[in-house]
Amino acid sequence: MGVVTRARQALVLTGVVIAAAVVLGWTTWVSYDRQGGDAVPALIDPTETPTAHGATWGPAEVGDLTGLRDPDDPLPTGARVLEAVVPYAPTDGELTCRIEFLAEAPSRAVIEHRPGAVAPRSWSPEVGAIFDEVERSESCAAESSAPGELRALFLVPGDISDDLLVAVDITGDDGREQLRFVVDGPS
Question: Residue 180's closest CA among 70, 72, 6, 58?
C-alpha cells in the first residue's frame, strides 16, 4: 500500500511541476508580447536626432538644478537635482511617450556581460514637486504635429558619473520603441 501512495504522490507532484512551468511560461510570453515583442532599446549619441513613430526626438540634455533649490527646503546631504529634457516633433499619427528613467551609462564590461561588472545605477522621475516655477511633463500624448518637450526631474546622489542615459519609451500606431539617449552629465 505504501508503494502505491508514494507513486501517486510522485505523479501528482510531477503534474504540479509541469502545470507551474506551463503557467509561468505562458505568463512570461504574454507579458513579453504585450510589451512590444522584442523591443530592444536603441542607444542614441548626444548629437543625434532619431525618428521614431513619426516623430523626431532629441537631442537630449541633462542639467543640474541643485543651485536653484530653496535653501529653506534642503535636499538630503550630497544629493543633486537633475533635469532631463528631450524635445520631440511629431509629424503624423498618434503617439504616447514618457521618460522612464535616468541612469549612469553602462561600462563596456556591463555591455559585454563580463563577470564581476557592476551594473549602473538608475533613478525614476520625481513624482513630488521639487520646483514649482516651471511646468514639466515626463510624458506625452500627442495627437497633433505640435512640437513639445519631455521634462523630468531626478533626485540623484552627488557622486554620479559623467555619462548618463535618458530612457524614453514611445508607443505609436505601429508598436513600441525604446530610445536611450547617451548624454554628458552636468559638471
Answer: 58
